[in-house]
């Protein structure tokens, strides 16, 4: 039973460091508390409004049956909002989706845990409760066909793509001009371009619709013009180590058969996804990689996270754009997918509540898949929270310690800080930031490029 396995998870790290408590809304004043109290209800209200606004369309498409299904879905989401706001106990899932049992086993694990109280919104771990909310939104639709495939966040995601057009055009134009010369680049030039595109993908993570509570949050300005001024805001910059892994692998290639695989665990669709696709294209064009594996979400998640539908829509939208550079990128990227040098996965694990250190136990197939990678990029804040277990680590605990054995391959987090958790800082660095900017961990103004190479084969 998963519950028994989870119960065996050590409470100290391999280095004997006590594993701290999880972030939780039980800590009033924490970002978790503010999120559960204010932000999640806002996101839920927007989701209900979106379903409401589509009533007409549903009637045209599905007649009265569709309208009745919508009304039932709305009432389930409204009930969910009430449970959240009144700190009701967590309920098991009833929609019979393939992951429902794993969710319910996780709930049993919490119920059997040391806390005497029933798992609930303002008492249980923040990571669990926030993930659970998005899975309950899916349940409210799944239980009411033909709503099953309706994405309550689709409008916001597509809108975010369109309002980022100028920025997308700017980075596509830059990339294509650079790509035309790439075959003549020396390693120093390749390195400069890698560092630049990694930073574009890093700051692309600010375009996230969960932190904005579902409000518009796209990239309007050309991101290339602000990179230099943003460098001091990168609190941990391990990009040199990442570069070393890439260039050493390229230099030590013994034969054409040696295949370098890079994985990108995606985050938000829209502008951030385009920055990830440009980075992926560069890694292939530079010869630093031979194949890129993308990992997206299997259901609509944290408002703007990328699903397969979003990924495919973005490629189509790029190809159909009436701007040449966008369209040329879209055509190249569609070709990469068709030729199998870009591969898309959406394992159910990414939309479970688990910390990544549980992956070998809970999703051994995915862990084994990631062990085939030569380097894994994890985009964004939620992935960082899961990498580090969303726990109350002190700032100076090492990234490796916080990973608690999650080491499938060399890995790098590209994350703008939007939750009150950060490890791997220098002594005094966190305190200094807190003194100068009370919101340094939640505003998205700061970022990290954090690398771990202590993978275990
Ligand atoms: O993973 P992302 O898109 O970078 O950020 C997700 C996020 O907006 O949602 C949570 C707060 O609601 C935090 O993890 C973070 O602020
Ligand atoms: Mn996200």
From TrEMBL:
Organism domain of life: Eukaryota
Gene Ontology terms for molecular function: fructose 6-phosphate aldolase activity; fructose-1-phosphatase activity; metal ion binding; protein-glutamate O-methyltransferase activity
Keywords: Hydrolase, Manganese, Metal-binding, Methyltransferase, Nickel, S-adenosyl-L-methionine, Transferase
Cofactor: Mn(2+); Ni(2+)
Annotated Damage-control phosphatase ARMT1-like metal-binding domain residues: 35-433
Entry EC number(s): 2.1.1.-, 3.1.3.-
GO terms (BP aspect): DNA damage response; methylation
A single Gene Ontology CC term: nucleus
Catalytic activity: beta-D-fructose 1-phosphate + H2O = D-fructose + phosphate; beta-D-fructose 6-phosphate = dihydroxyacetone + D-glyceraldehyde 3-phosphate; L-glutamyl-[protein] + S-adenosyl-L-methionine = [protein]-L-glutamate 5-O-methyl ester + S-adenosyl-L-homocysteine
Record function comment: Metal-dependent phosphatase that shows phosphatase activity against several substrates, including fructose-1-phosphate and fructose-6-phosphate. Its preference for fructose-1-phosphate, a strong glycating agent that causes DNA damage rather than a canonical yeast metabolite, suggests a damage-control function in hexose phosphate metabolism. Has also been shown to have O-methyltransferase activity that methylates glutamate residues of target proteins to form gamma-glutamyl methyl ester residues. Possibly methylates PCNA, suggesting it is involved in the DNA damage response.
Domain notes for this protein: Subfamily III proteins have a conserved RTxK motif about 40-50 residues from the C-terminus; the threonine may be replaced by serine or cysteine.
Family: Belongs to the damage-control phosphatase family. Sugar phosphate phosphatase III subfamily.
Entry protein name: Sugar phosphate phosphatase
Species, as recorded: Scyliorhinus torazame
